[in-house]
DNA sequence: CTCATGTCGATACACTGTATTGCTCGTATA
DNA sequence: TATACGAGCAATACAGTGTATCGACATGAG
């Protein structure tokens, strides 16, 4: 029985951990969207059988949770500026940028409570920015309001971006982009305000739109933090 | 060959239209969530073969679009109050109520542009509320900001509601509700601001939280509509 | 060397969205 | 009245999904 007759010893399965799994899932989602993430495909990228992943996650939804938490790490800023306004703005912007890097994030944002370590850290950072500026309840309202705003704004931005892409890369020509349907609807005269907005409105890029709205919301928060004394 | 020997003539398929299809899909989603909506199940509820639906929609995503548009009809208020603030508040509240009736709406809100007739009508109503109060661009920013807020807020509310429900109907006991994990994390001392918020914060019901944030955002909009004269 | 343990791969199941195919039946024409 | 046509439908099929179950097998302990 020479070496040539004996088969090589069975290769041990490549070591695995959540980090690797999540990384593979994120890679798949980054190009192909959330629906490109299937247990089988993730496993294949790791040279593993599909069922093996279920030692690390117990359901596919948990995988999504891990993906979101992983991306939250990208959002955490290194240093917190002293100015609460600046701190909040940075957090919002970084969330937006993360969503632009990982468009699938828009599908998940706000969909489930973020209780992972990084998610909690982001919440902590947000709350910490208000430290000492108001009572706990006001701070809670402020955090909720600001984050509700930017989650909604990010979702819409990504949704529009995809819609534009789907209608063949037309840049900012709303009506032609979304095809004859909207044009026809507007022509019915049943939507005068909308028609005016579409035809007379200035095309403003998504970033400034986001920043403007954010600024408004921060103004609102500021007004509540330092209530105008009688 | 008596009547008794002859089989009844083959029953003509029950007539179908988008309205019926969408209604069936909504019924399924209302109890069971979006994932309970499958082409086969919708068709079965209508005594039809699955493939028949593809005469009315060309993809499942289109079915979702129709569902959203259908629910938007519930949002449209009958009469528009003259006060823009009141008008916006009503639109936001009605959207929230619709989402509470149809929780799956939270999963779809903001996910795609709403170009259906009812969706356009809602946008029209929103824009119309600002008629004559500011230039087109300011109005656009205002509409975007307010709707971004309430979409984000509704999503979070539904997400929390589901999370609570999943952890066994515990009412407002955040830490106990989400199990030992959060408690343990808070005990690490790495999230002081969060811990303070959880332990010292007042439990406020979702509706007032929503209304409060909405009010703040509306304040911000108001400030931009009537800029303080020098 | 043997045995227990825990992990993995294979297999299986119920189900998904949708393309294709050919039948069937109501209608229009000859 | 007989025939051809064409639309709308059901049936079938396919590739893929998430996940339960189970048998084998390598690894560590005794």
UniProtKB/TrEMBL annotation, chains A, B:
Alphabetically ordered keywords of this record: DNA-binding, Transcription, Transcription regulation
Domain HTH tetR-type per the UniProt entry, residue ranges: 15-75
Keyword match Transcription regulation: yes
UniProt entry tagged with the keyword ATP-binding: no
PROSITE patterns (UniProt xref): HTH_TETR_2
InterPro entries linked: Homeodomain-like_sf (IPR009057), HTH-type_TetR-like_transc_reg (IPR050109), HTH_TetR (IPR001647), Repressor_TetR_C (IPR004111), Tet_transcr_reg_TetR-rel_C_sf (IPR036271)
Gene3D superfamilies named in the record: Homeodomain-like, Tetracycline Repressor, domain 2
Residue ranges of DNA binding: 38-57
Entry-linked PANTHER family: HTH-TYPE TRANSCRIPTIONAL REGULATOR RUTR, TRANSCRIPTIONAL REGULATORY PROTEIN
Name the UniProt record assigns to this protein: TetR/AcrR family transcriptional regulator
Species of origin: Streptomyces cinereospinus
């Amino acid at each position: 029985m020479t070496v040539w007759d004996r088969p090589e010893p069975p290769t041990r399965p490549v070591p695995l951990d959540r980090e690797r799994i999540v990384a593979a899932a994120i890679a798949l989602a980054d190009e192909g969207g959330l629906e490109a993430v299937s247990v089988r495909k993730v496993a294949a990228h790791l040279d593993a059988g599909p069922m093996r992943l279920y030692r690390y996650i117990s359901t596919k939804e948990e995988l999504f949770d891990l993906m979101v938490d992983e991306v939250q790490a990208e959002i955490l800023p290194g240093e917190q500026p002293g100015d609460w306004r600046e701190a909040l703005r940075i957090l919002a912007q970084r969330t937006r940028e993360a969503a632009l890097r990982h468009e699938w994030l828009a599908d998940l944002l706000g969909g489930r409570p973020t209780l992972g370590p990084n998610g909690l850290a982001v919440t902590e950072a947000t709350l910490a920015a208000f430290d000492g500026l108001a009572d706990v309840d006001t701070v809670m309202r402020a955090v909720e309001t600001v984050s509700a705003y930017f989650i909604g704004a990010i979702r819409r931005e990504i949704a529009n971006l995809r819609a534009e892409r789907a209608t063949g890369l037309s840049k900012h020509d709303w009506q032609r982009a979304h095809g004859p349907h909207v044009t026809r609807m507007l022509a019915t005269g049943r939507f005068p305000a909308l028609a005016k907005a579409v035809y007379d409105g200035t095309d403003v890029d998504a970033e400034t739109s986001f920043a403007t709205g954010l600024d408004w919301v921060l103004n609102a928060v500021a007004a509540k933090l330092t209530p105008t004394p009688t």
